[in-house]
Amino acid sequence: MPFDVARVRGLFSTLGDGYLHLDGPAGTLVPESVARAVSAALRVPLSNRHGPFPSSARADALVDAARRAFADLVGGEPAGVILGPNMTTITYGLARALAKTWKVGDEIVVSRLDHDANIRPWLTAAKAAGAVVRWAEIDIETCELPEWQYDGLITRRTRLVAVTAASNAVGTRPDVRAIADRAHAVGALVHVDGVHATPHGPIDMVRLGADFFSTSAYKWGGPHVSATAASPAVLDRLAPDKLVPSPDAVPDRFETGTPAFELMAGAVAAVDHLAGLDDTATGSRRSRILTSMRAVQRYETEVFARLDRGLRSMLHVYVIGSPADRAPTVSFSVQGWKPRAVTEELARRGICAWDGNYYAYELMEALGVGELGGAVRVGLVHYNTAHEVDRLLDALAKLR
Ligand SMILES: Cc1ncc(COP(=O)(O)O)c(C=O)c1O
Fold it and tell me: How far is CA 100 from CA 16, 40, 321, 392, in A?
């Protein structure tokens, strides 16, 4: 069954602004169903949690529904889903909690491929605990993250390995399972940044070997709310910083302050949106998500091949990296143009693209483009089309 992109685009009233949105890796557009769900949550009485009246029961129900939705999306358990305002904030909290279990001389492994949100919180926590930080390096030419290097990086003292499921800058999907197996062999935990990977294919955090899997709804049609899924048994062993009177149960004790209940409604609608991307999919929501996301992956891979071929055929465009397994996201530079000048020119032509380091700070430094203003990034999601790719390629061809 071919992916019905025309039907899918019809779900987004936000696509009608005349711009071509190739900035999905920084945040996607929101389908109408999500905007309506957020609004609907606020158009009935809604109060704080744990009260004995209906408006409070609604808040409880929104939190429960969000945990179930995030769990369905990543193949996790609702009772292990930590909700939060964004991945960075959740990861800082988790890093502080895990660091309480580390001793001086323990070790953690981070990767040069990662977004800074899956590096800096761990480095800060390691410093506080006196833990040693080891770095997994990228192959500069391909931008792959060779998994064999983890044989030397992981030791009996390793407590945590943090790695991305897909790079938000160059698309690389490392072999997370192979890395996780090495970590688990010494009893280390694995924190997988799934923020960039989640919109681009089916996710099964157990098969990936993730003890923690983080994702942000605003990268897949949802509002600005995030979650990290873990096994409740692992969370049970941790003591995050928390207020004395706030709930001590798992996963609530990992969530500080009052959450944005209305955005939970939006996150549930966004998961339902993903589950319905292949409208022939049947069965449970989890099974419809898997079917739909397989269709999304096939579709995006095909459109991305056109983009990649087109970019590489232009002599004035230099494409960064050539990872074998990748998300439909690419960074490049244009000869004679600063990255910001390229995105400004594209914006004048009605095309949204990103420039800079997109917080993939270590990667861009390793590639030597950090001080040159980074690079230009284009990313496809399920509402982008081959026609849009051609419009982008035409615009870039004019920058010679
Ligand atoms: C791969 C990746 N990880 C982490 C983050 C941080 O996510 P958040 O904005 O939810 O903190 C981003 C955001 O761009 C990202 O692309």
Answer: 49, 41, 38, 49
* Nearest residue to 274 (alpha-carbon basis) of 285, 262, 261: 285
In the chain (400 residues long), the average pLDDT of successive 10-residue segments reads 93 95 98 98 97 98 98 98 98 98 98 98 98 98 98 98 99 98 98 99 98 98 98 97 97 97 98 97 98 98 98 98 98 98 98 98 96 96 98 97
Check pocket membership of 28 for ligand 1, CB cut-off 6 A: no
Rounded distance from Cα 87 to ligand 1 centre (Å): 6
Q: Is the pTM of this model over 0.90?
A: yes
Other CB atoms within 10 Å distance of the CB of residue 218: 22
- Dihedral Cα 29, 32, 36, 39, nearest 10 deg: 40
One-character DSSP codes across 192-208? EE-TTTGGGS---HHHH
Please report, for residues 5, 15, 277, 295, 302, the alpha-carbon distance to residue 2 in angstroms, rounded to integers and kept in the order given: 9, 21, 11, 8, 11
Alpha-carbon gap, residue 319 to 377, rounded angstroms: 10
8 Å CB contact between 364 and 398: no
Q: How far is CA 11 from CA 8, 34, 232, in A?
A: 5, 10, 35
The answer, yes or no, to whether any atom of ligand 1 lies below 6 A from the CB of 86, is yes
Spacing, Cα 32 to ligand 1 middle (Å): 23
* Cβ of residue 196 lying under 6 Å from some atom of ligand 1: yes
Assess whether the C-beta atom of 216 lies below 6 angstroms from ligand 1. yes
Q: Is the CB of 167 under 6 A from ligand 1?
A: no
Distance separating alpha carbons of residues 9 and 277, to the nearest angstrom: 10
Rounded to the nearest angstrom, the distance between the alpha carbon of 290 and the centre of ligand 1 is: 23
